[in-house]
């Protein structure tokens, strides 16, 4: 009846704090087989940050391309099996990247100690044992994956998170210097993920004073970063965006995302669209649900010269739209939050298909 | 160089969530000698909440009067020694009350596992071992003691906290129904503690985007509760005040209190004034440091018909004022934050005495 939510155990916040990692992980090196697995966005391959990793020769460093797809159950299982077969059980896993890398780090931490395929654990509290120590360093801000208790995975049957208290990072390092080099499109779309899920968090039946306070402050920071007098890319805004991402994630602890995220999951699962971009594709057409939130979102698009494609649905088959509508419909907690207890009277596969046809 | 701060491990937020405690502590009952120590504000003695305590016959329930003084090292040592001698080592300690009770619960949790007097551990990271499991249930909102890593104690020599990562609660239950019956004076003064330390947090050299975001949102909630259209005592405002208290406390994770708190500590240590009230006594006279914050504070006083005494210093001896100035001066981190790196050039015992004479 009352959620008892698990916080990240320890948090460092500050420009340049990436350098604190070596000391933080040193005391964990006695665990298990004594090596760390670094999972790093391959954007950093050959870049300065790669030279600053506190990796020892015993450690495994994997640069992973987050772009072709969001993390899949197959990808997690394969990486886990390979590491266990060749090196044993890591002392810990360190994720350095955006939401995809955060989710990979959280998911593989759990899958090192829970047997079988990760497809067995997609859902709430299905994980049986705590994972290994895991540390997250976000290098793109907005998804809130650094604080959430979910590691979203796309499986053969569903896109659904491994969600339990052990999913939450043991340690997070929030160093806003690391987001200074995010490509401008990712800076925009990922930041909009925070904006959109805070709007959804506020407008629904599950929110409370806790989720509202976090959503309000995250939205206020987003407004400063994307619409304020000093809007745009600068150090101060990087700081603010990193805090907004964290607070947006914390808002969802006691609330839920809504219609936009439900539609977005369908776009990701069936058409392979990236999460944050898919949110933007859908959100622009939801003014009847999210009113001024959508109006303000369009101001942000305009201010940053972002053109979202229109009439996408014209090229989709009815089969694809139906498949997306089924994915969206099955995210029942999102509809419940957004529409209310009687949502099934108001929302049908047909009505969801109509929403997709707006795109 | 970079603070690595420890979060409360688990948090429940929600009206009525006090009832979740029985289930939460059930799984801890195998620890140590299997009994819980309940430390409860004696305001609740004979009241409905006392009947709702999930205490078993084996447990120890102590109703404590928080009013004669704030927690002392002697009080903690004595209670610890008595419990250990008669019952052994508790499975955990549960604090139910305002900031004083929160501090007692945090401090005694540490003193059950660290030998000798608590006076040995007043300061930063002097504690040698983790304490026993401790759970906090605030019934007055404002001090932020429910989230802080400090258990402030008044000893024979100093008023200073036991401050380390193990001070932080393992579990907090935030049930805003519990603050509905707070006497109106405590409701005001304790809420003002959040307001004042957020103003101090913002205006100083240590703050960053993290502490600013938390302070901004806590201040915004305080404004709604004490000055907004629906200002005053109601369920919605109790929710907001409970969140404001938490966020105000979290703001201080990366920032510091300032001049008002330094003066307040002197008033508490030398004259025995309660912390939140002492803050209010001092803050009204600090407009040259905290500008619009003090102006707005005076609006809140007026709106709620709170008359703070004036010309107090006329009845103090020079010896008392000097003693208070020494207490305040020694809180060097507060002056450093509020005045800057060169604070010693600007702040002297004499200048602090002049501040006290404003009261």
Written description of the protein model:
Two copies of one chain form a homodimer. Chain A has 359 residues and is of the alpha/beta class. Chain A folds into two domains: 10-179, Rossmann fold (3-Layer(aba) Sandwich); 184-357, Dehydroquinate synthase-like, alpha domain. In chain A, 45% of the residues lie in helices and 13% in strands. The first copy, chain A, contains 14 helices and ten strands. Chain A has a six-stranded parallel sheet with strand order 2-10-7-5-3-4, with helices on one face. In chain A, helix 5 (184-202) packs parallel to helix 7 (235-251) and helix 6 (209-226) packs antiparallel against helix 7. The relative contact order of chain A is 0.11. The mean pLDDT of chain A is 95. Strand 2 of chain A pairs antiparallel with strand 1 of chain B.
List the helices and strands and how they pair.
The structure is a homodimer of 359-residue chains.
Chain A: E1 4-6, E2 10-13, H1 21-26, E3 36-41, H2 48-51, E4 60-64, H3 73-86, E5 92-97, H4 99-111, E6 123-124, E7 133-138, E8 150-154, E9 159-163, E10 171-174, H5 184-202, H6 209-226, H7 235-251, H8 259-271, H9 275-283, H10 287-303, H11 318-329, H12 332-339, H13 343-346, H14 349-357
Parallel strand pairs in A: 2-10, 3-4, 3-5, 5-7, 6-9, 7-10
Antiparallel strand pairs in A: 8-9
Helix pairs in contact in A: 3-4, 5-6, 5-7, 5-9, 6-7, 8-9, 8-11, 11-14
């Amino acid at each position: 009846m009352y959620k008892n939510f698990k916080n990240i155990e320890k948090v460092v916040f500050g420009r340049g704090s990436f350098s604190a990692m070596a000391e933080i992980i040193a005391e964990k090196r006695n665990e298990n087989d004594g090596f760390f697995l670094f999972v790093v966005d391959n954007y950093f391959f050959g870049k300065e940050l790669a030279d600053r990793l506190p990796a020892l020769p015993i450690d495994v460093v994997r640069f992973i391309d987050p772009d072709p797809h969001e993390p899949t159950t197959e990808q997690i299982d394969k990486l886990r099996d390979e590491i266990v077969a060749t090196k044993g059980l890591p002392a810990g896993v360190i994720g350095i990247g955006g939401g995809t890398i955060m989710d990979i780090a959280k998911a593989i931490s759990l899958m090192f100690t829970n047997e079988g395929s990760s497809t067995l654990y997609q859902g709430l509290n299905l994980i049986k044992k705590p994972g290994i120590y895991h540390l997250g360093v976000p290098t793109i801000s907005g998804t809130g994956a650094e604080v959430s208790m979910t590691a979203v995975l796309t499986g053969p049957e569903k896109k659904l998170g491994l969600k339990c208290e052990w999913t939450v990072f043991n340690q997070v390092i929030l160093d806003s210097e690391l987001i200074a080099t995010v490509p401008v499109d990712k800076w925009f779309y990922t930041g909009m993920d925070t904006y959109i899920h805070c709007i959804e968090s506020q407008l629904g039946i599950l929110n409370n004073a806790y989720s509202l306070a976090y959503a309000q402050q995250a939205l206020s920071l987003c407004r400063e970063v994307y619409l304020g007098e000093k809007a745009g890319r600068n150090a101060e805004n990087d700081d603010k965006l990193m805090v907004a991402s964290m607070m947006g994630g914390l808002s969802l602890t006691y609330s839920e995302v809504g219609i936009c995220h439900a539609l977005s999951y369908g776009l990701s699962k069936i058409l392979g669209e990236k999460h944050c971009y898919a949110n933007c594709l859908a959100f622009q057409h939801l003014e009847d649900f999210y009113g001024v939130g959508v109006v303000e979102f369009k101001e942000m698009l305009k201010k940053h010269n972002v053109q979202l494609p229109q009439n996408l649905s014209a090229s989709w088959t009815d089969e694809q739209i139906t498949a997306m509508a089924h994915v969206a419909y099955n995210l029942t907690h999102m509809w419940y939050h957004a529409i209310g207890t009687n949502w099934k009277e108001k929302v049908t596969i047909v009505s969801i298909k109509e929403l997709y046809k707006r795109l």
